[in-house]
Design goal:
The complex is a heterodimer. Chain A is α+β, with helices and mostly antiparallel strands. Chain A has 2 helices and 4 strands, in the order E-H-E-H-E-E. A 4-stranded mixed β-sheet of chain A has the order 1-2-4-3, covered by helices on one side. Chain B is of the alpha+beta class. Chain B has 2 domains: 76 residues, Alpha-Beta Plaits, CATH 3.30.70; 190 residues, 2-Layer Sandwich (Sulfite Reductase Hemoprotein, domain 1), CATH 3.30.413. In chain B, helix 2 packs antiparallel against helix 3 and helix 7 runs antiparallel to helix 9. The radius of gyration of chain B is 22 Å and the shape is globular. The termini of chain B are far apart. The chains are: A alpha+beta, B alpha+beta. At the A-B interface, helix 2 and strand 3 of A face helix 5 and helix 6 of B.
């Protein structure tokens, strides 16, 4: 994933809304502040909603990459709440 | 007992039932919102004066059926203690309906409840040649079915890309349903001739790389009863509340001035001609 040091990855292509967001959120909770998570997700509803939802949880979205197999990988930096 | 004036009763939201001397009491509800205090009082009145049930109407109202004629004044007083007011029916401005809007719903583009309250303060119960309905929906998902109403208000977003916050993920172009967004050399380009102001680019953006202002799309002349017809959108995007109310003032005044008794707005527009109406609307739009 080029510029970023990925600390963990999670694949949410095996679940559907609203579990997509829940699975990503659980994976983020296991990280420390400032660590970076790569989330692999499907095209369509997941890629249209999950990035925004994670941003609204307060985390920082660094990049969204389109993969060759039609999925997307979202690179997120965990931001702990104050 | 004094002669019963049904038209006065009806104006106050007491609707005559099939059963003699029984009325279904319609309550004033704005934007589908009631407080817990309202609900407690409604439940109490339904048990004490009705038959223990309430009806949720097709336009977000509440009715308490089986209120007896002789109890009407007492019921009004009782309801007032729970801050509940009678609704209206007949030839006047009806319940202003609304979805939850942007204070609750992630899809919402406007504060529908606030707009509904302001419309209610401005027009509710106003006497007109026939019934007149306002509905406010927060976005293009249109949960509130804006175009069913004589005047329908739909929340929109007036958008502008912010280059400095953009990570070039391309989601905005992907979610845009009117193909208004292209990405050229890392720059997001919006074709405003194609943009329908749905706000999906803003809602999907993971880095808030948009300036977005609440705006309104307004439809006129919808009716969904005996005749079914969608409201039409003759105006461009409305970008302020002040402009919105200028336009709604013009529409309701046109109806008041030109409608025949018992003629819905759509039929007034069909009869008088839309050109004159649209001319008035544009004047109001431009201020």
């Amino acid at each position: 994933m080029g510029d970023f040091q990925i600390d963990d990855t999670v694949d949410i292509t095996d679940v559907v809304c609203p579990v997509t967001f829940v699975k990503a959120k659980v994976a983020l909770e296991e990280l420390d502040d400032g660590q970076i998570l790569a989330i692999r997700m499907n095209d369509g509803e997941p890629v249209q909603n999950v990035p925004r939802s994670i941003k609204e949880e307060g985390h920082q979205i660094l990049k969204l990459n389109a993969n060759e197999d039609g999925t997307y990988t979202l690179i997120v930096k965990k931001v702990e709440e104050e | 007992m004094a002669e019963v004036d049904y038209s006065t009763l009806k104006k106050g939201g007491f609707m005559r039932q099939k059963q003699k001397d029984n009325f279904s009491l319609r309550l004033a509800v704005v934007g589908g919102t009631l407080t817990a205090e309202n609900l407690k009082k409604i439940a109490e009145v339904a048990e004490k004066y009705g038959d223990g049930h309430v009806h949720l109407t097709s336009r977000q109202g509440v009715e308490i059926p089986f209120i007896k004629l002789q109890d009407i004044d007492e019921v009004k007083e009782e309801l007032a203690k729970g801050d509940c007011k009678p609704g209206v029916c007949g030839p006047r401005v009806r319940t202003v309906t609304a979805c939850q809007g942007n204070q609750i719903c992630p899809s919402g583009n406007i504060d529908t409840y606030d707009i509904a309250q302001k419309l209610n303060d401005r027009y509710f119960g106003r006497e007109l040649p026939h019934k007149f309905k306002f509905g406010v929906t927060g976005c293009q998902n249109n949960c509130l079915k804006a175009e069913e109403n004589d005047v329908g208000i739909k929340g929109a977003l007036d958008v502008k890309w912010k280059q400095e916050a953009c990570i070039n993920c391309g989601l905005c172009a992907k979610v845009c349903r009117s193909n208004a967004i292209t990405i050229e050399d890392g720059k997001v380009v919006v074709d405003y001739d194609k943009c329908n102001y749905c706000g999906r680019c803003v809602k999907s953006c993971p880095t808030d790389a948009w300036d977005a202002e609440s705006a309104y799309l307004v439809s006129f002349g919808g009716t969904f009863g005996n005749a079914i017809s969608k409201g039409e959108y003759p105006l461009p995007l409305i970008t302020s509340e002040e402009q919105l109310f200028r336009v709604t003032d013009a529409a309701i005044q046109f109806f008041d001035d030109y409608a025949n008794p018992s003629e819905r707005f759509k039929f007034t527009l069909d009869r008088v001609g839309r050109e004159e109406f649209y001319k008035r609307l544009k004047e109001a739009y431009n201020g």
